[in-house]
Write a structure and sequence with these properties.
The structure is a homodimer of 310-residue chains.
Chain A lengths: L11 E5 L15 E7 L5 H8 L8 E7 L3 H20 L8 E6 L11 H5 L1 H22 L4 E7 L3 E3 L4 H6 L5 E12 L4 E6 L5 E2 L2 H9 L18 E2 L14 E2 L7 E5 H5 L14 H11 L5 E10 L3
Parallel strand pairs in A: 2-3, 2-5, 3-4, 7-13
Antiparallel strand pairs in A: 5-12, 6-13, 7-8, 7-12, 9-10, 11-13
Bound molecules: guanosine-5'-diphosphate (GDP) (2 copies) and manganese (II) ion (2 copies).
C-alpha cells in the first residue's frame, strides 16, 4: 500500500470521555445515539417507525446483526433495500449518521424462529445464550468513544412514540425500559385492543430468589412460564390507564425489546451474559450486572411500545 | 450542518464477521490488531518497544486510556509528543493505522500510584475495580467490527520480543498470556538478573477454591499476598531455563500486563468484571468469564516480557 510518496499522517483521535455528555436533554447537547437491533426478520413497520423518530437522524448511528441463516439472508436483502432508499434517495434530514451491518459468525442454535417454538422453556437457555452473544458482538463492535446513549430496539418492535429517545433520556437513568405491548383484534369486543407482550421487565420476588437459590449456579430462571411460577412483579401488568406516562419503577430484570442505556453503563462493563449470571441470562442478566456496577435499572409501566403480532 | 445542497450519502459499512479472520498466521491474512494500554505513567521504553514491533504497523490500532489526574496529564503530554513524532515525522512504515486516546471520566480512587501503596491488599479491591472499569471503557470504545486480535499491554511493560504478535497468535488460543518478568541488578552476583513479576497468571488450587467458598460472594481473592496464601500454581514460577519457548499451560487467572485475546472472545461478552465474579476481579475475573464462554485461557511460562523496575 505504500506509494513511496508522502502519505497523510494516519488519524489520531482524542476523546475526553468527559466531553461526551449524557444528559436529560440530549437534543440540546447534540448527543450521539447508537440504535442497536438484532434482526432475524425484517419488518417494514420497524423501518417506518425508526424513520419517524424525530431525534435528529444525523446524530443516530444504526447497528444491526443478522444471523447467517436463509431467513437472515432474506432480512439482509430487505434491510439493504430500505437503507439504500433512505440514505441515497431520501431527503437529507431522513438520513442516519452511519449504518453498520454485521452478520453472525456462528451457526444459530437449531431452534425455529416460530414464536411457539422459540418460546418453549426447554429451548430458552440455548436460544437466549445465542441472543446474548449476538447482542454483545453488536455492542462491542459498534460502541464508539463519542456514543452517549444506546437504544436497544428489537426488529419486531413496530411502534414507538417518535420522541422515544428524548422521552426516555429525560429520566436520566442508566438503564430504562418502556413497557412492551402488542396490538390485537379482540374477537369479543370486535375492536382493536392491546395486551402485555414482554415479560422480561420485572421486580424480584422472595419466591424467585428462593427458587434460584435451590438451582445449580448454571441453571437459569426464565420468566413467563407457568411450569416455573416466580411470582415476580411483572411490569407488563403494571400499566394503569389513568397512570402518569412518566411513572418510574425500579426493575431487577429487563427485556431488550426496547431499552435505553447510557453508554457509560456498557463502558463500565455491563454486557449480556451468555451464561447463567445469578441464574439469569441475556437481558435479564444484563439488568443484574448493571445493578452490580451501581446502575439501578428502571421501567416505565405506562410508556408503551408495540411488538409485531405474528 | 445542512448546506441546502446535495450531500454525499452517509457511510454504510457492511461487515461480515465471517470475513474477519483470526488465524495462527495473522500476517499472511493481514489481520487487524488493536493494542490497548491503560496508562497512568508514560515510559519512553514502552514506546520504544512498541515501535520495534515487527508486525506491520499499518495493521495496528493503538488505544490508550489515561486517568484524569495530574500524573495522567503528564503522561498525556509525553505520549502525545511521541505520537506526533512517529505519526507525522517518522518514516511511513513506523506509523500506526490509527490512535485513539481516552481520558477517564471518573475520579480515580484515592490510592497512590507508588508500587508499595498500590500493592497493599486492602487497597486491591477498590484499585482493581477502577482498573477494570478503565479497561472496559477502553475496550468497548475501541473494538471495531474488523478487529481480529486485541493485545493488552501495560504501559510499564518495557520489553517484549518484536515478534510477540505473531508468536502468540500462532498458538491459536482465545486468551494467551506470556510470562511477565522484571530485570534487576543482583547485588550478590553483581550482574543483571531477572525475577518473576506478575503473579496474576495462575492455575487454581483446592485451597484457593475452598477459601473462596467461605468468602462472601462480594469478597475477592487476590494473588500474591502472604496474608492469604492460596497455594495456586503461579506461572511466574514455572519458567524453565531449558524449557521450550512455546510450552503452553492452561490458566484459571490471567494478568493484564501482556495478553493476546481473540476479538471474538471479547465480542462474546468477555470483559473485566469490576465486581466480584466467582470471588475474582478484573483480569482474573476476565479469565473466569472467558472460560465460562468456552474459551480456556492459556499461558506461556517460558515466553517472557519485562516489566519496568521502579
Ligand atoms: N442476530 C440475531 N437476531 C435474532 C436471532 N433470533 C432472533 N433475533 C432478533 O432478536 C430480537 C428478539 O428476538 P425475538 O425472537 O423477537 O424474541 P421474543 O420476541 O422475545 O420472542 C428480534 O429483533 C429478532 O429479530 C438470531 O439468531 N440472531
Ligand atoms: N487509565 C488508568 N490506567 C491506570 C491506572 N492505574 C494504573 N494504570 C495503568 O494500568 C496498568 C497496570 O497498573 P499497574 O499499577 O502497573 O499495576 P501492577 O504493575 O500490577 O502494580 C499500567 O499500564 C498502569 O499505567 C488508572 O487509574 N487509570
Ligand atoms: Mn420479539
Ligand atoms: Mn505494572
Amino acid at each position: 500500500k505504500s506509494t513511496g510518496g508522502k502519505l497523510a499522517a494516519p488519524p489520531v483521535a482524542h476523546y475526553n470521555l468527559n466531553n461526551v455528555t449524557t444528559t436529560p436533554t440530549p437534543l440540546e447537547n447534540s448527543e450521539n445515539v447508537l440504535l442497536l437491533t438484532p434482526m432475524a426478520r425484517f419488518y417494514p413497520e420497524y423501518w417506518d417507525n425508526i424513520m419517524r423518530l424525530d431525534y435528529p437522524h444525523e446524530l443516530i448511528t444504526l447497528g444491526f446483526i443478522l444471523p447467517k441463516t436463509r431467513e437472515g439472508n432474506d432480512a439482509m436483502r430487505e434491510l439493504q433495500k430500505r437503507i439504500a432508499k433512505t440514505q441515497q434517495q431520501g431527503p437529507e434530514k431522513d438520513r442516519f449518521k452511519s449504518i453498520i451491518i454485521l452478520r453472525e459468525d456462528i451457526d444459530p442454535p437449531l431452534v425455529s424462529q416460530d414464536e411457539k417454538e422459540r418460546h418453549k422453556m426447554k429451548n430458552q437457555k440455548v436460544r437466549r445464550s445465542a441472543m446474548a452473544k449476538a447482542r454483545n458482538s453488536l455492542l462491542f463492535s459498534t460502541l464508539g468513544p463519542s456514543t452517549s446513549w444506546v437504544l436497544w430496539l428489537d426488529a419486531d418492535v413496530v411502534e414507538t412514540p417518535p420522541t422515544i429517545i428524548q422521552d426516555l433520556a429525560q429520566h436520566d437513568q442508566g438503564v430504562l425500559a418502556p413497557n412492551c405491548y402488542q396490538r390485537f383484534w379482540n374477537e369479543e369486543t370486535k375492536a382493536m385492543d392491546e395486551r402485555p407482550y414482554d415479560f422480561n421487565n420485572w421486580q424480584d420476588s422472595p419466591i424467585a430468589l428462593e427458587l434460584a437459590q435451590k438451582m445449580s449456579p448454571d441453571d437459569i430462571l426464565v420468566e413467563g412460564y407457568s411450569e416455573m411460577a416466580t411470582y415476580r412483579t411483572l411490569m407488563a401488568y403494571m400499566a394503569q390507564e389513568d397512570g402518569r406516562l412518566h411513572e418510574e419503577m425500579p426493575l431487577d430484570g429487563v427485556g431488550g425489546a426496547a431499552l435505553l442505556v447510557k453508554a457509560d453503563v456498557h463502558r463500565d462493563g455491563a454486557m449480556f451474559p451468555a451464561f447463567a449470571f445469578y441464574n439469569l441470562i441475556e437481558t435479564e442478566g444484563f439488568a443484574k450486572m448493571s445493578k452490580r456496577l451501581g446502575w439501578q435499572p428502571f421501567g416505565l409501566p405506562n410508556y408503551k411500545v408495540y411488538h409485531y403480532n405474528e
